[in-house]
Amino acid sequence: MKTEMLIGLGHDRIMYLGMEYIERGYITSDEYENLYEYLYKPYEKMGGNGSAKRIMNEVNKLPIHKSQYEEEQNHEHE
Questions:
Q1: How far is CA 30 from CA 15, 25, 45, 48, 62, in A?
Q2: How much is the pLDDT for 5?
Q3: Which 3 state secondary structure label does DSSP give 28?
Q4: pLDDT tens digits for 35-77?
Q5: Dihedral angle at the C-alpha atoms of 57, 38, 1, 17, nearest 10 degrees?
Q6: Nearest-CA neighbor of 31 among 3, 66, 73, 72?
Q7: DSSP symbol at 25
Q8: H/E/C letters for each residue in 57-76?
Q9: How far is CA 65 from the centre of its chain?
Q10: Please, what's the largest Cα pairwise distance for the chain?
C-alpha cells in the first residue's frame, strides 16, 4: 500500500514538473538533477513507468540552462 502511494506521488511530481519544464522550453541543471536523480530514478526502481517515462523522455530533449546559483558563482569569480 505504501509503495503504491509513493509511486503515485512520484508520478504526480514527475508529471507536474516535467510538463512545466516542457511548456517553458528549457530546464536548469539543478532542476534536472532534482527531477531525474531524486524523483525519476527512485520512481523507476519502485516499478513506476508509463506516462512519467514519456514525460522524462521529452524533458531529456530540452536544452539545459545553468541554474541561477551557477550563474551567481560564475560572476563572483570574474
A1: 17, 15, 21, 23, 14
A2: 92
A3: strand
A4: 999 999 999 999 988 899 999 999 999 999 987 766 666 666 6
A5: -50
A6: 66
A7: T
A8: HHHCCCCEECCHHHHHHHHH
A9: 13
A10: 53
| pLDDT confidence tier of residue 1, bands split at 50, 70 and 90 | confident
Report the predicted TM-score, pTM, of the whole model to 2 decimal places.
0.83
Q: Which residue has the cell 532542476?
A: 31
**What pLDDT was estimated at residue 68?**
73
Sign of CA dihedral 30, 34, 40, 42: positive
User: pLDDT-based confidence at 26, cuts 50/70/90?
Assistant: very high
**Between the CA of residue 64 and those of 6, 8, 32, 36, what are the distances in Å?**
28, 27, 8, 13
Cell of 46: 519502485
